[in-house]
Structure formats: C-alpha cells, structure tokens
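User: Assemble these into one structure.

Assistant: Restating your components, then the assembled model:
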Amino acid sequence: MATKAMLSQQEKSTAASTSAFSWGAILTVISGIFMLAALYMALVWAPDALNLTAPAERYAQRIFYFHVSSAWLGFLAFIVAAVVSILYLVTRKDIWDMWALASIEIGLAFFTMVIISGSLWAKPTWNVWWTWDPRLTISTICWLLYIGYIMLRGAIDNPDRRARFGAVYALLASFSVPLNWMAIRWWRTIHPAVVAPGNNADESMGSFGMSANIQTTLIFCVVAFTIFYITLMYHRIKLEQLQRRVDSLKQRLLYR
Amino acid sequence: MGDTIYLAAAYGVFWLVSFVLIYSIANRQRHLQKDIAMLEQLAQEETSSE
Amino acid sequence: MATDLIPTTSTATHGFGSYLRKVAAIIGKDVATELRTKEMISAMFVFSLLIIFIFNFAFDLRAENMQTLAPGVLWVAIAFAGMLGLSRSFVLERDRGVLDGLLLAPVDRSAIYLGKMIGNVLFISLVEIIILPFFIILFNQPLGTLPFLAGVVFLGSLAFASVGTLFSAMAVHTRARDVLLPIMLFPVIIPAMLAAVRLTAAILDNIPFDEVSQWLALLVAFDVIFIAASFMLFEFVVEE
C-alpha cells in the first residue's frame, strides 16, 4: 500500500516536474537575456560620468550599476525571508521554510558580491580598500547575520525544530537591521573625519551627475537583478523540495 | 589596462559568484535526482520480493 | 494583557498577580541555584577583570591616551562576560531536565522567558557593578561617573540579555551550542553595543547629554523592541 502511494506520488511529481520544467526554462532564459543586456548597458551603453576625470575613477564608476543592484537584491532577499518566516510561524507550512532558506542563501551570495565590489570601487575612488562607510558596514552586518542563520540551521538535526528556530532567528535579525542602519549613520555623522571619504559617502550617489542614461541603466539593472532573483528562488525552492523528498524516501525505506 | 583592472575584477567577481551559485544548485539537483531514482528502485525491488 | 496573546498551558493561570508570582519563582530558582555555587558569577567576574587588565597593557604601547580606549574596553569586557553567562543559562536546565519540568508546570511560556531574562540581567548587572570600580581605577577615571555608568551598563545588559536569553534557549538544542551563541548574538546586538559605547564615552568625556540623547533613545528602543519580540517568540522556541 505504501508503495502504491509512493508510486502515485511519483507520477504526480514527474507530471509536475515536466510542466514545471518549461516554467523553469522560460524563467532561466528570460533572466539570462536580461542579465546580458544589463551587462551591456552597464559596460558599454551607459555614458561616462561627466565630473569624474581620472580614468581609473571613471571606469570604476561602472561597478556601481551591478553593485547597487546586488545590494537591492540582497535586501529584497532579506525582506522576503522575514515575511515568509512570519508566514511559517503562523501557518507551519513547510513551503515557507523552504522560501526562507532559499532567499537567505541567495541573499548571502549577493551580499558577498556587494562587499567585494564595494571594496574594489573604494580603492580607485577613495584610495582605500575599506572604509566604515554606512552602506558598506550595513552590508557586512547583513552578511554576518545571514551566516549566523546558515550555521544555526546546519547545527540542528530535527527538521521541525530547524524550521522553527530558523524562522525565529530570521525575524529577530530583520528587526536588528533598521536599528543597525540608524546606529551606523549616526556613528559616522557624529564622528567625522577619521576617514575623510566616509563623509563623502553620504553624497556619493549624487557626487557624479546622474544623467538620464545613467539612471535608465541603473533601473534596468535593478529590474534584471529582480528577475534573476525570482529565477534563482524558483530553482532553489525546487531543489529544497527534492531534498525533502529524498529525506522522506530514505526515512520510509529505513523504518518500514 | 591598469585603469580598468578594478572594473574587470568587480564584474569578474559578479559572474564568478553567480556561476558558483548556479552551479551548486544544479549540481545538488543532479545528485538528488540520482538519489531519488536509486531510492525508488530500491523501494520497488523490496516490494516485488515481498 | 500580554498573557492573553499567548495560549496558556493551564486553565488555572489567571490574573496579572499570579503571573508575576510565577516569574518571581523562576528568578528565585535561578538565584538560589547560583548562590549555592556562585560558579557563574565568579567566572564572569574574573573573566571581565582579565579582559580589562589585558587590554589595558596590550594597548598601552601604541595608544597615546588610554582614556580614548576606555569605553570600548569596558563594553568588550561586558559583552564577553555576558556571553559566558548566557551560554550557561540553559545548559543546566537542559542537562538536568529542568526545562521539561518547567514546560510541564502550569506556567505560561512567556513567564519562563521573563524569569530567565530577568535572572540573566541580574547576574550580568551584579558582575558589572563589581567590575566598574576596578575599571575606574585601572583607567584612571573620575569616581563621580559611577552612577551614570551603572545606568548605561544596566540598559546595555538588558539589551544583551533580552535577545541573548532567547538565543541561548535555541543554542542548547543545537549540536555546537557554545560556539553558535556568539555567532548568532553579536551581529544582532551591534546597534545596542554602539549606543552603549557612545553613551559611556559621553559620560567619561563629560559631553553634554543633548548631544547623545539620540543614542539613549536608540538603546531604550532596542531594549523595548527586542524584549517584546523575544517575549512573543519564546513560545516557538520551547514548544516540543
């Protein structure tokens, strides 16, 4: 009887995966096209910033498009994780736990990019690898919070407890982000001039002229990254579903 | 070239991390699919021998 | 009022008075256990004294003015000592099956949280009150700052214990319990730490209160938000 149930489940899942496969493929192709277009726009189509004269600075300015977009994606991932964590605690549906894990894993990857590319931008522009600029600092704190989440999950065996603790932690971590943001901004504004660039950082958005084409490029990049995020989420959640099916199959074989 | 090195490095990092992420998802997915096939075969063998 | 939000485990628990009595009973239990051995308090005390001492002569060579480092050193000492205390907070509970007993008892889950949290604040504050005079002597600070410092230390300990108690209850159920707690706790309490260091520096440097009032607001806001959030989320952590 168990086998029968399993077989019917198998049929259902293969049917689902064939119809879902095309969805995944469509999403993948669309996000691939958008990302390549975003790359073209950021590197070639967008004009040079007018007021940056040093060539090193002018080139480095183009890092900004993907840097800002990844930061946006990272924060989006964080917000999604917090919302689905609430949903998990309320409804106790496994799917929300998968969403949270997928979102945080993707957010972690993109925050890594934000920090590294921010550092690579700071070097030619401010002539230091690292400044305690509010944006850079908050990204790093988010990265650390994400790492805590992944490590917490890794240390718990019971799947139900893993999901519950993960949701509680993700929620508390998300409360800490706005407070961190405030604290770090005040820290810089009240305590200026240790690292002079830290002051410019607040105006860094406006410190090169945002001409119309620069703006268009940035908006396009943000849209492309959002589509990229949706695609990654789709595949990561699929993966998590597979993982749980394998786990339950193993359980069933062991304890029959 | 010296002026574009940071730009190249930054975009290199973007694509590297993206590819690592995509590769890890694809890789894990492939392994799991293999596991599922094996487990289902095992389950079937056991029921047929019963 | 808060008790209505969370389903109680018993039918006979009504009234704010009885709720407070239960919280007090849990605090009393922790204090009695601690007084018997004084293990945790003495360990925390010696540890934070060591940190202050080591920092004082480790930085001595390069820092032109040790006074500028004082607030940072004090808070590193408090953070590390507090971590030591928090990581022990639920270990006894778990190893001796106390937590199961508490969960079976007709006590609201949030009362367990409040009791444990207040107990932790008591222990950390007690240690810091003993430490502060040593700190003032070693860093050559004016003695008159003591009451203000004590106030800031209390608010900081509250921030630390609020979310720390919750995370400690989570960490004991994981495989790497002692390692995991600081990794989870430190990034979350960064804003409270920044605010506490700022306020301490303002007190030691005699900066007018107006210039740092926003930091006090931030610290109090952190305390309120995280105590409320942990209070409501604790139920999800201990349900088994």
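Residues 1-13 of chain C have pLDDT under 50 and may be disordered.
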